[in-house]
């Protein structure tokens, strides 16, 4: 069976995406634990369309196959400190900015909806 | 008598000689902050009693107390994403509206050790993301040259108006240089790792550093020396070699061999006036005998796009801890997940929500390899190109921004807003952040809104950039008077 191609091309054919699917956008905002209003979602979709169109040339046409990814400007190494006991942040300071605290703990709503 | 026309070195000397009394310093500093706030909304917070206390502490210091006092009396504004324990640190967000850090950022500690007077926390873009000036929960900072336009940041506006002699603000994708250009002041983004990030609330960890703004090159250098150097509590800081002198002199002015992008005029949205002003500076420098060579850096034009992709993914991760549990704003929810959703949806601005959703999208399995991983690889090409260029030349010279300060009051559909994810304002400034290189913004003043030029330098070679700025200062006279509100 022949598959019709439309503007939303599958990933296996490379970077040809011009319009993000509504479901992808909703999944992404959920991952970020955000609720976008209808206006915010529409504005982002338009911005994404502009973004995808502009990035086509750069990300598709440049040969990046043998190029290493650049993660961080400095080469880091793990640093250990002396194994000497030091006090942690005092509880009073830890809880000082808490929206709600009780008996030395942060208070939050129940985890499971009834 | 205003001391704004003297350098930090001269101010410190006058204080040590007793030519400036604490009462006068207190009065002028407070007046400066109030006026800058009333007219341009520069600050999110400042505390008159705190300013008075800091001034008294300075004047009570005795030489045997061991403080360095190199910045004695220098008023200093701190962007509101840098921790201060005596004032709230809000990141210009409803999310952190009443957040009080338990410690000072290392940069604040070192400033105080050198006798600087922190005067207030400046307004900014929410979490430092961008420079359009419209996402702050505390309303926009108005540009002192024209209130209908953005200042980019309160830190730049504080320095421009004289409310602060120096200011510290973060820079990830060139926001520092952009706001400096919009306001017409100098800015130094140092090499990544030069200044401790302890206490900086960062949104893009591999790009962001703390930078400095000032009206004169010598003040930038003095402020830089006071705060740069290793910090055991930030293991990614670089050792700063001891310097010959703390203060620069006019005789230090010198230009390195300069490279200029051969296609700088092709930057999207570049304004005619910016082209004209930058071209005129090039002619001026050539007439002074500067060696200027045009270079091709074919991947430089992708820097802003690459930085935007990387910053969005990093911000998606870095801002995930704003959940209403331990600090900050909390939205109402029947259960924990609903609380998270309400907290973040109500606590963050539309702009930040769009940016984080964009970052989440690019982190997903359908997009990660095609966008984020490719952006990381393209970053390598840009970094390597810059390194190759700077092996031959002392600095790369570009305009700071393609356009002058944008108008406030943008709406969906505005050309610049439609391209928000591509960040057109960062066309020239994003590359330094990608490579972790130092960059200096030097203002170009006009009758109306100013703009700026940018020098990107070799790693750990801030001094060459500052010496070049000294020479540019000699050749460009600025009239600050019209926008100065008060200050010292």
Q: Please state the oligomeric state of the protein chains shown.
A: heterodimer
Spatial order of strands in the largest sheet of chain B: 1-3-2-6-8-7-12-13-11-9-10
Radius of gyration of chain B from CA coordinates: 21 Å
| Number of continuous helical runs of chain A | 3
Count helical runs of chain B.
15
What distance lies between the first and last C-alpha atoms of chain A, to the nearest angstrom? 47 Å
Average pLDDT of chain A works out at 84
Kindly name the structural category of chain B.
alpha/beta
Largest interface comes to: A-B, 58 and 71 residues
Short précis:
The complex is a heterodimer of chains A (114) and B (488). Chain A has 114 residues and is mainly α.
List the helices and strands and how they pair.
The complex is a heterodimer of chains A (114) and B (488).
Chain A: H1 22-31, H2 38-61, H3 91-95, E1 101-102, E2 105-106
Antiparallel strand pairs in A: 1-2
Chain B: H1 8-17, H2 22-40, E1 43-45, H3 48-60, E2 75-79, H4 106-113, E3 117-122, E4 142-143, E5 146-150, H5 154-161, E6 166-171, H6 175-183, E7 186-189, E8 209-214, H7 217-227, E9 258-261, H8 272-287, E10 292-295, H9 303-318, H10 336-347, H11 350-363, H12 368-392, E11 395-399, H13 415-418, H14 430-435, E12 439-444, E13 451-457, H15 462-475
Parallel strand pairs in B: 2-3, 2-6, 9-10, 9-11
Antiparallel strand pairs in B: 1-3, 4-5, 6-8, 7-8, 7-12, 11-13, 12-13
Q: Would you write up a description of this structure?
A:
The complex is a heterodimer of chains A (114) and B (488). With 114 residues, chain A is mainly alpha-helical. Chain A is built from three helices and two strands. Chain A is flat, with a radius of gyration of 24 Å. Chain B has 15 helices and 13 strands. The chains are: A mainly alpha (114), B alpha/beta (488). Chains A and B meet through helix 1 and helix 2 of A and helix 10, helix 11 and helix 12 of B.
